[in-house]
Amino acid sequence: MTDSKAAVPTPNEKKSEKRTSLPTFYRQVVAELRKVVWPTQQQLTTYFIVVLVFVLVMMAITAGLDLGFGKLMFWVFGGRDA
């Protein structure tokens, strides 16, 4: 079993840590972004189409359920059915 004190710094240990300067932070961000595997144009187009189709299907399901439950409520409670 590992020592939990080493994994989570106490509040006193956090205070002794020095803040990262802005230029250092920027360099670290740029270094991390260079490690990212960016999608190709074809992958991006495929992902966009998949997401678009999914959203359209979910909109259709939601609209259908809304219409169906609305008509059901008008039928149950005897309101005017438009």
From TrEMBL:
Where found, per UniProt?
Answer: Cell membrane; Membrane
- Species annotation: Nocardioides luteus
Q: How does it assemble?
A: Component of the Sec protein translocase complex. Heterotrimer consisting of SecY, SecE and SecG subunits. The heterotrimers can form oligomers, although 1 heterotrimer is thought to be able to translocate proteins. Interacts with the ribosome. Interacts with SecDF, and other proteins may be involved. Interacts with SecA.
Q: Which family does it belong to?
A: Belongs to the SecE/SEC61-gamma family.
Transmembrane feature ranges: 44-65
What segment(s) does the record annotate as region Disordered? Answer: 1-20
Its biological function? Answer: Essential subunit of the Sec protein translocation channel SecYEG. Clamps together the 2 halves of SecY. May contact the channel plug during translocation.
Major place of residence:
membrane
PANTHER family, per database record = PROTEIN TRANSLOCASE SUBUNIT SECE
The cross-references to InterPro entries, in alphabetical order and at most eight, read: SecE_bac, SecE_sf, Translocase_SecE/Sec61-g
Q: Does the keyword Transmembrane helix apply?
A: yes
What is the protein name for this chain?
A: Protein translocase subunit SecE
Taxonomic lineage from the root:
Bacteria, Bacillati, Actinomycetota, Actinomycetes, Propionibacteriales
> Could you tell me which Pfam families the record lists for this protein?
SecE
Topology versus the membrane: Single-pass membrane protein
Q: Which PROSITE patterns match?
A: SECE_SEC61G (PS01067)
Q: Which UniProt keywords apply?
A: Cell membrane, Membrane, Protein transport, Translocation, Transmembrane, Transmembrane helix, Transport
